[in-house]
Amino acid sequence: MLTIIAAAAENNALGKDNQLVWHLPDDFKRFKAITSGHYIVMGRKTFESFPKPLPNRTHIIITRQKDYEVPEGCLLASSLQKAIDLCPKNEEIFIIGGGEIYKQSIEIADKIDLTRVHTTIEADTFFPEIDTKKWELVFEEFHSKDEKHDYDFTFLTYVKR
């Protein structure tokens, strides 16, 4: 199963200057719980936005750079399809960004785990539109802003129709 996991504002903003534009600890906890123990597929810029590889996950980094050096335990692929081919066949695989990789994967994904951040924010990277004719909302959980979260947000899960 191919699952896209992302956090996007109401205008589909994902980030700016290769950084997230909010800090939502509960979203980070959910991301960790959902992706731990799995293969995570990402573009090079997304990988480079991390201080180090995320623990307890196998990273597959997509880049066209032939001589790109990856840390031990990380895998390299030159395309989304080649990245998917490196993953175990009967396990859930997570697409974790960035914008271009989401765009390439939305047609072939089986599920979307989206954190909808209830704000409109300036960004340079965006999540693709979710076509509700192709995707069915099967889970929705609202969270109010609080002392740790500057924005209201909703966890949403979509499955392909």
From TrEMBL:
Q: What is its EC number?
A: 1.5.1.3
Residue stretches making up the DHFR domain: 1-160
Query: Record keywords: NADP included?
Result: yes
Q: In Gene Ontology terms, what is a biological process of this protein?
A: one-carbon metabolic process
Listed GO molecular functions? Answer: dihydrofolate reductase activity; NADP+ binding
The pathway this protein participates in, as annotated, is: Cofactor biosynthesis; tetrahydrofolate biosynthesis; 5,6,7,8-tetrahydrofolate from 7,8-dihydrofolate: step 1/1
Query: Which EC class is the enzyme in?
Result: oxidoreductase
Quote the catalytic activity from the record. Answer: (6S)-5,6,7,8-tetrahydrofolate + NADP(+) = 7,8-dihydrofolate + NADPH + H(+)
Q: What does this protein do?
A: Key enzyme in folate metabolism. Catalyzes an essential reaction for de novo glycine and purine synthesis, and for DNA precursor synthesis.
* Family statement: Belongs to the dihydrofolate reductase family.
Q: Per its record, how is this protein called by name?
A: Dihydrofolate reductase
Q: What organism does the record attribute this protein to?
A: Flavobacterium cucumis
